[in-house]
């Protein structure tokens, strides 16, 4: 991957001028990592191999007090995540999970065709994936790992202290810290040109990928949430951001924050290169089109590719999609065609008492089966990369 700019934050001066303190927070955040998680992983390196992660798993399952010889850095990490923020509304978390699960098919499509594609517009943000060889070679597996994580956080109660989603989110946070340590230790990471690996600003943008970017694309497909439902969803992703180590200065709390972060990401991003285009192609051909084709009565994989390309064109716009090498297709008009139909059906069903609750229950009950089918299809037996049989050479396996 060739970085076109000598700085990790092109147009930093414009970002600060236009967005003032929020712009400065963004610029600074490109060079900031996750001090608590990074300190814990550094402490693990001083222990016999595997000891630190064993302590971490025990602390997740039984609490940090069950690890009397835990390093101070690990205690500091759990002191943060075990203390619920004053703003946390747990009922909102469960409501939000229901809102998202009810439209899980649409949500899954837009996370790939809109959110991940927009993420690929900044080559600096993708550098850690390039270095760990996970950008293009394992697109389907990475997508399923994300799906495995989402399965746990979208389960009712999943983000409670003993919930599976709480545990997987903390595991993701540690995985990121292991990647950062590996890249820093390699001596090949150029902090001036690339900022911090998996930086605060890009972690915040990841929350936006799951939040407003996906929600905007879903609206294009005809899935519309009420203002109250959107508040629940933004609250949900705020808590996920907190658990995943996004600091309060960048962790988005509302729609306006999500929009601003997306704008800053686009403004200060380095243009995509061949690696980013290869990623989008691999994601489309190796995963998204395979899943879409499975839903189509005719056309097979070829039509699946065309549908995904059309959706990406619709969600990103022609200019951005062209930069990613997404072919133009008449199917970019597909959302405009299906949106009135999907929107109308949702309005009718939502007006019938109890139907939305039933749809949510039905979708929630079906997630394990869908995930099992996909794992079988792609030969995947683990949930997250830290549990992969050979770890794929990933730093989190160390």
UniProtKB/TrEMBL annotation:
Extent of the signal sequence = none
A GO molecular function annotation here is: oxidoreductase activity
Domain ER-bound oxygenase mpaB/mpaB'/Rubber oxygenase catalytic intervals: 104-330
Top-level taxon in the UniProt lineage: Bacteria
* One Pfam family linked to the record: MPAB_Lcp_cat
Protein name, UniProt field: ER-bound oxygenase mpaB/mpaB'/Rubber oxygenase catalytic domain-containing protein
């Amino acid at each position: 991957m060739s970085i076109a700019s000598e700085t990790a934050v092109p147009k930093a001066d414009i970002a600060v001028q236009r967005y003032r303190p929020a712009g400065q927070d963004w610029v600074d955040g490109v060079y900031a990592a996750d001090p608590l998680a990074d300190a814990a992983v550094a402490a693990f390196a001083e222990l016999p191999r595997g000891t630190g992660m064993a302590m971490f798993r025990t602390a997740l399952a039984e609490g940090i007090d069950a690890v009397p010889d835990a390093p101070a850095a690990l205690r500091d990490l759990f002191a943060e995540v075990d203390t619920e923020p004053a703003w946390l509304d747990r009922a909102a978390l469960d409501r939000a999970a229901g809102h998202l699960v009810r439209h899980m098919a649409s949500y899954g499509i837009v996370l790939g065709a809109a959110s991940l594609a927009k993420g690929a517009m900044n080559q600096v943000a993708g550098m850690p994936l390039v270095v760990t060889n996970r950008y293009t070679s394992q697109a389907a597996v990475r997508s399923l790992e994300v799906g495995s994580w989402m399965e746990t956080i979208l389960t009712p109660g999943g983000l409670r202290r003993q919930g599976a989603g709480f545990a997987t989110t903390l595991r993701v946070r540690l995985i990121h810290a292991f990647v950062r340590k590996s890249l820093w230790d390699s001596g090949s990471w150029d902090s001036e040109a690339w900022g911090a690996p998996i930086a605060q600003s890009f972690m915040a943008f990841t929350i936006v990928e799951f939040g407003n970017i996906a929600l905007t694309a879903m609206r294009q497909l005809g899935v519309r949430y009420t203002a109250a439902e959107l508040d629940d969803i933004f609250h949900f992703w705020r808590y996920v951001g907190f658990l995943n180590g996004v600091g309060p200065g960048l962790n988005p709390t509302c729609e306006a924050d999500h929009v601003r972060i997306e704008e800053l990401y686009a403004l200060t991003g380095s243009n995509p290169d061949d690696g980013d285009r290869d990623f989008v192609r691999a994601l489309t051909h190796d995963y998204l089109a395979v899943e879409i084709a499975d839903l189509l009565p005719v056309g097979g994989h070829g039509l699946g590719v065309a549908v995904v390309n059309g959706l990406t064109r619709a969600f990103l716009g022609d200019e951005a999609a062209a930069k990613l090498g997404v072919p133009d297709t008449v199917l970019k008009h597909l959302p405009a065609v299906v949106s009135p139909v999907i929107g109308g059906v949702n309005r009718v069903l939502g007006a019938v008492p109890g139907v939305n609750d039933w749809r949510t229950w039905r979708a929630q009950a079906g997630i394990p089966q869908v995930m099992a089918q996909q794992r079988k299809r792609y030969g995947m037996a683990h949930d997250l990369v830290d549990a992969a049989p050979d770890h794929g050479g990933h730093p989190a396996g160390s």
